[in-house]
Amino acid sequence: MSLSAEPIIRVQKEIFDAGEEAAKLTQGRTDIGAVVTFTGLCRDEGGTLAALEIEHYPGMAEAEIARVAVDAAARWTLASLLVIHRYGLIAPGEPIVLVITASAHRGAAFDAASFLMDYLKTRAPFWKKQHARSGTDVEIGSAWVGAKQEDDAAAEKWGR
Amino acid sequence: MKALYFAWVRERIGKTDEHISPPEGVATVSDLIDWLSDQGEGYAAAFENKKTIRAAIDHAHVKHDASIATAREIAFFPPMTGG
Question: Are A61 and A125 in contact (CB under 8 A)?
Fold first, then answer.
């Protein structure tokens, strides 16, 4: 298993364009048969959420995503791989995370993208805080999002 | 060594980072959590549910039984909720 290009990993405040990133990743390549693009968006939680605030651990966030990328490259043969994770204040509808995997065939690209997301959720040092909209029934003005057991289970299904 | 705190651990302690000098005998992450818990009300509140606390030494996840002997930077935080 392998990765034929350096993984691209960015932790940034700025918004990103998934289509543009996918186009750049495959530009000039003729060995790629499949590109999977996953974008995680900020939900408004039924109209109650004003914004998400994402805190991260600078330095470790990049290092941990890089370790997850190395794991993915050890399991699948990939042509290229990109992960962008945002931090700071994010409004409903805006993108939070982008995972792009490219491979000769679709199986590796789909599986690697799914694996990367499952591992990012449980291993990358990011924490979400919800800011509630005023006038809604949410009691607390802002609250940290709790870790979900289903996310741990999703990561564990890949084994080590 | 430098200690860093994130999310509600940071909020309860009331600071993002600090230099700490734990006494001899504080050998593991677990020992350090116990020692920090005695440093004030905020620390006690941050570490009251020890099992939920995650730690990283020099940018890599570690378990509570990990040695802190060579650590330059140690971070404490709740389970991660990114993605």
Answer: yes
